[in-house]
Amino acid sequence: MTIAKGDKLPDASFKRFGADGMIDVSSPDLFAGRKVVVFAVPGAFTPTCHEQHLPGFVQHAADLKAKGVDAVVCVAVNDPFVLKAWGDASNLNDAVTLLSDGNGTFTKAIGMDIDLAGPFLGVRSKRYAMIVDDGVVSEIMVEDNPGAVASSGAEQVLAKL
Ligand code: BEZ
After folding, report:
1. CATH no., domain 13-160
2. Where are the domains positioned within the chain?
3. Could you read off the pLDDT of 28-59 as tens digits, one per residue?
4. Is 74 a catalytic residue?
5. Distance (Å) from CA 46 to ligand 1 centroid
6. End-to-end CA distance of the chain
7. What confidence score (pLDDT) does residue 122 get?
8. Does ligand 1 lie within 6 Å of residue 42's CB atom?
9. Are strands 128-133 and 97-100 parallel, antiparallel or unpaired?
10. pLDDT digits over 114-143, tens only?
């Protein structure tokens, strides 16, 4: 199944690092009663993700929150330790939460997995952004080219709010 506008997200669990170590994040914790912007990247530290996609959401986090967004999260099929290092290197200022979907369970469940064996990344996530209201997808933008940000950037998400 490929997730689409109007669908409810499946239950899932993620991991993230907080001040005291690794934390489990469940989808009800994340989505229940909240408006959440989820964007996903093929990989931490890859050029487009590191230089364009993530910085755009950090830069526009206050604008997103001014339009009613409770949280901005970034999902990647990377292990939690890599995501911690990416966060440490990215001046997040608590604007964006990096969520590890290390086994790709959530990504596969919503049909957003992509085989990036060519550039030696293995199975990862497509690049996309979605607006999620109380666990239901109200907008989703998926990139045809995982190496580019054309429809899934912070400015495009802002225009949909
Ligand atoms: C990137 O620059 O984000 C990227 C590189 C290779 C494959 C997918 C994405």
Report:
1. 3.40.30.10
2. 13-160
3. 999 999 999 999 999 999 999 999 999 999 99
4. no
5. 5
6. 26
7. 98
8. yes
9. unpaired
10. 999 999 999 999 999 999 999 999 999 999
